[in-house]
Specification:
The chain is α/β, with parallel strands linked by helices. The chain has helices spanning 60-73, 100-108, 114-130, 150-153, 159-165, 174-188, 241-250, 254-263, 266-270, 278-286, 290-314, 324-329, 331-338, 378-390, and strands at residues 2-8, 12-19, 25-32, 40-45, 51-54, 80-85, 96-97, 136-140, 196-202, 206-212, 215-219, 319-323, 360-361, 370-373. Strand 1 (2-8) and strand 2 (12-19) form a beta hairpin. It is globular, with a radius of gyration of 21 Å. The structure holds adenosine monophosphate (AMP). Adenosine monophosphate binds at residues 203-204, 232, 277-279, 282, 324-326, 329-330.
C-alpha cells in the first residue's frame, strides 16, 4: 500500500510517501515556516532532484494542500494517509482510523500539546473534506506508553485533581521506541514477548523507555516532553522549588519561566551557551571548553542512571538500544554511557561501536546484554500502522 505519512509540527509539515511492501520512499519533502512569512517548500518525487521553492503557508491546511497537489502533479498515487499525532491524551492507546469522533478527541486533548495537536487536527480536517475517499489513520507518540503500570505513570499529587485533569505521565517518542524495540527483537531472532529492553532515543529531544515483553513499563518523559534528561534546550527534571525562587527573584510569570525551561536550558545552558547541538559540544570540548564537556558528561550520566533504574524496574535487561541523532551517530557517547555497566553484564566492542547510522550489534560477542544501534524510522512505523488498520 502507498501511504502518505504526514508529520505536522508547530511551524512545519514534513511528509513521505512510503510503499509498505517494499519500504521504498517515492516522494519526500517539507513545508517550512508554516504560519509565518517567508515559507519554503522542499520536495522530491520519483527519484527527482530535491527542489526548494518559496511558497507562503498562512496555515497548515495550505501546506497539506500544496503537498497533495504536488504529489498529484508528479503522478504519485496514494491509498491512505497516516498522521503523526504528538498527544493522544487519555483516549488513545493504539493507532486509529479517523472519523469525526477521533478528530474531536484529538482536539479535546489538545490543551496538553496545543502547538502540535491543533495543526495536526487541521491537516486531518482538510484531508477528510477534500479527499473523502482516502482513509486517514492517526498514530500517537504517547500510545506506546498508554498502559504503563500505575507505579510508573502516577504523580504524587492530589488524586482528585489528577483524575479530573488527567494528569499522568504520558511520555513521548512512543512510535520510535516501538519501532526500534520491534527491530531489536527481529535482529536478535527472539519473540519480543521474551525480551527486556531499554530503548535510548537520544536526539535534540531525548527519552528512555523500559520495554518488558514488548510493552512499555516506564519512560523518562512525563506529562509533557519537558521531563527527564537534560536535552538540547530543555531542562529535563528539576526541583519545582527552583521555579518559585527564580520567578520571585526576577519577577517572571509562568510563561517566561517555561520559555527558559524549554528554550534556554538543557545542554545549551550547561555548556554556558556553547550550543544545543551535541556535535558542537564534542568539538568545543576537544578544543578545551570544560563546560561543553560537562554538558555531554551530564547527559551521558543521566542516560546511564536511567538504564540502571530500568534494569532494576524490569528485574533485568536483555538488550539496550541506541537510536536518534545522538544515539545513531555518536560512538563516543554510546561508549561512555555503556562503560561502567559491566557489573550488569554489558560489555561493549569498541571496534563494532565505531559505526554510524546503520543497524549493528555494538556489544562484545560474550556480552550478556546485547547493545544495538538501530536507526529509528517513525515514518515507516506510521505507514505500516496505516496499512494494517486500513486493511482491517
Ligand atoms: P534528532 O533530534 O534525532 O534529529 O537529533 C539531533 C541531534 O543529533 C543534534 O542535536 C546533534 O547534536 C546530534 N547529532 C547528529 N549527528 C551527530 C554526531 N555525529 N555526533 C554527535 N551528535 C550528533
Amino acid at each position: 500500500m502507498n501511504v502518505l505519512v504526514v508529520n505536522a509540527g508547530s511551524s512545519t509539515l514534513k511528509y513521505q510517501v512510503i510503499d509498505t511492501k517494499s519500504h521504498k520512499v517515492s516522494a519526500k519533502g517539507s513545508c517550512e515556516r508554516v504560519c509565518f512569512t517567508g515559507g519554503t517548500f522542499t520536495h522530491a518525487a520519483n527519484g527527482s532532484k530535491k527542489v526548494t521553492e518559496n511558497i507562503e503557508f498562512p496555515d497548515h491546511k495550505v501546506a497539506i494542500e500544496v503537498v497533495l497537489k504536488d504529489l498529484e502533479a508528479n503522478g504519485v498515487k496514494i491509498e491512505g494517509i497516516g498522521h503523526r499525532i504528538v498527544q493522544g491524551g487519555w483516549y488513545f492507546g493504539d493507532s486509529s482510523l479517523v472519523d469525526e469522533d477521533v478528530l474531536a478527541k484529538i482536539r479535546e486533548v489538545a490543551p496538553l500539546a496545543p502547538l502540535h495537536n491543533n495543526p495536526e487536527a487541521n491537516v486531518i480536517e482538510y484531508c477528510l473534506e477534500q479527499y473523502p475517499d482516502l482513509p486517514n489513520v492517526t498514530v500517537y507518540d504517547t500510545a506506546f506508553h498508554f498502559n504503563m503500570p500505575e507505579v510508573a505513570k502516577t504523580y504524587a499529587l492530589p488524586k482528585d485533581v489528577c483524575d479530573k485533569l488527567h494528569i499522568r505521565k504520558y511520555g513521548a517518542h512512543g512510535t520510535s521506541h516501538r519501532y526500534v524495540s520491534g527491530r531489536c527483537a527481529e535482529l536478535m531472532g527472539k519473540p519480543i514477548e521474551e525480551l527486556k529492553i531499554v530503548s535510548c532515543h537520544m536526539g535534540n529531544g531525548s527519552s528512555i523507555a523500559a520495554i518488558d515483553g514488548g510493552k512499555c513499563v516506564d519512560t523518562s518523559m512525563g506529562f509533557t516532553p519537558l521531563a527527564g534528561l537534560p536535552m538540547g534546550t530543555r531542562s529535563g527534571d528539576l526541583d519545582a522549588g527552583i521555579l518559585q525562587y527564580l520567578m520571585n527573584k526576577y519577577q517572571l510569570n509562568i510563561d517566561d519561566m517555561l520559555n527558559i525551561l524549554n528554550k534556554k536550558s538543557g545542554v545549551l545552558a550547561l555548556s554556558d551557551g556553547v550550543s544545543s547541538d551535541f556535535r558542537d559540544l564534542e568539538n568545543a570540548h576537544k578544543e578545551g571548553n570544560e563546560r561543553a564537556g560537562l554538558a555531554v558528561d551530564m547527559f551521558n550520566y543521566g542516560v546511564k542512571k536511567l538504564i540502571g533504574a530500568y534494569a532494576a524496574a524490569m528485574g533485568g535487561v536483555d538488550a539496550i538500544i541506541f537510536t536518534a541523532g545522538v544515539g545513531e551517530n555518536s560512538a563516543s557517547q554510546r561508549l561512555d554511557i555503556a562503560s561502567g555497566l559491566e557489573f550488569m553484564g554489558v560489555k561493549m566492542d569498541a571496534e563494532a561501536n565505531n559505526v554510524r547510522g546503520k543497524e549493528a550489534v555494538i556489544s562484545a560477542a560474550d556480552s550478556k546484554v546485547k547493545v544495538l544501534l538501530i536507526p529509528t524510522n517513525e515514518e515507516l512505523m506510521i505507514a505500516m500502522d496505516t496499512a494494517a488498520i486500513v486493511k482491517g
